[in-house]
Amino acid sequence: ALPNFVKIVEVGPRDGLQNEKQLVPTETKVELVNRLGKTGIKVIETTSFVSPKWVPQMGDNKQVMQAIDRHPDISYPVLAPNVRGLDGAIEAGAEEVAVFIAASEAFSKRNLNCTIKGSMEKASELITKAKANNVRVRGYVSCALGCPFQGHVDPAVVAGLSKDLMDLGCYEVSIGDTIGVGTPGSWSAVLDETTKVVGVEKLAAHCHDTYGQALANIHRALEHGLRVVDSSVAGLGGCPYAPGATGNVATEDVVYSLHGSGYQTGIDLDKLVSIGHWISAQIGRPNVSRAGKALQLK
Ligand code: HMG
Ligand code: MG
Where does the Pyruvate carboxyltransferase domain lie (predicted)? Predict the structure, then answer.
């Protein structure tokens, strides 16, 4: 039988906040990570070491990394697009980084100013140096279910890039539905291809909820055998280079749905719900977690 434990990768502090127009104070980011660290979540993507000209909101990456309380059993990966980002991450004490490759040329150009091939070369250089420094690397394939500029994305391309990232030395690859266009049907098409070339235990589902499909897609991914899910507390987020994309699926909604379906996450839902309300108030946004709202009314 498949295991019933699902690992949640909380991406709110990075994917969730990167798109906020108003700079979120560093202390708020640090407090968000620290509060999340008390819920039972074991992976918290904390910030990104990308160009601050491209994503000003993550410009305080080093300060955030140095101020958070680190628990030995939690990992705090950071996003890095190139060796420059890796170097910054290592300097700031990161023990894990995440690289990202787009499955569409048009998106790669807009998000990384680079072709897919060029970005894979940068990822390769980064992974080699990361491994030499005992830094673990997670991979993302973004726009895996569709691209805001070119539309359809071929599942075979997603499978090929996922395998390339694993071959280069990533320990896990997250399949990113950056703009939330995927459905259970199109997720099945992508996972059918990808699981042919990458072990299902190495794959994660990264769903944005733009079209309201995220939970259905996650359950479909679980049926395929995936046991790693990326999500963002209060459904924070959106990608600055993906117009119209909403935030990630809310962690509260995922945890509620998983616990109600016989899965375990090790996460305290009540604590998560209060963090969702807290961070939404801090940044002046409505909390888009449905479970979060419902549980607050109780
Ligand atoms: P570029 O302009 O082509 O690169 O950007 P460059 O090498 O010419 O560098 C431009 C400037 O940035 C230079 O500074 C570099 O030194 C500096 P200047 O000489 O002009 O003063 N620079 C850096 N600074 C800090 N950290 C770095 C770094 N690299 C260069 N690492 C680049 C290329 C890759 C840098 C740029 O395109 C970039 O930073 N892109 C990141 C965009 C981004 O963060 N997008 C959001 C994350 S992806 C996402 O959200 C999807 C995901 O969630 C999955 C999903 O949803 O599917 C992961
Ligand atoms: Mg994302």
Answer: 6-273
Q: Complex ipTM above 0.90?
A: yes
Ligand 1 residue neighbourhood (C-beta within 6 Å): 15, 18, 48-51, 53-55, 79, 81-82, 84-85, 88, 100, 111-113, 140, 142, 176, 178, 206, 208, 239-241
Q: For residue range 129-164, what is the model confidence (pLDDT) as tens digits?
A: 999 999 999 999 999 999 999 999 999 999 999 999
Strands (DSSP E) found in the chain: 7-10, 43-44, 47-48, 78-79, 96-102, 136-142, 172-177, 203-207, 228-231
Name the residue of 15, 50, 181 to mutate for ligand 1: max ligand atoms within 8 A of Cβ: 50
* Catalytic residue ranges: 239
pTM of the model: 0.97
C-alpha 190 – ligand 1 centre gap (Å) = 27
Q: How far apart are CA 51 and CA 159, in angstroms?
A: 28
Ligand 2 centroid to Cα of residue 238, in Å, is 7
Sheet holding 47-48, edge to edge: 43-44, 7-10, 228-231, 203-207, 172-177, 136-142, 96-102, 78-79, 47-48
State the chain's maximal CA–CA distance in angstroms: 52
Q: At what angle do helices 290-297 and 251-259 cross, to 10 degrees?
A: 80
Nearest alpha-carbon partner for 165 in 129, 135, 126: 126
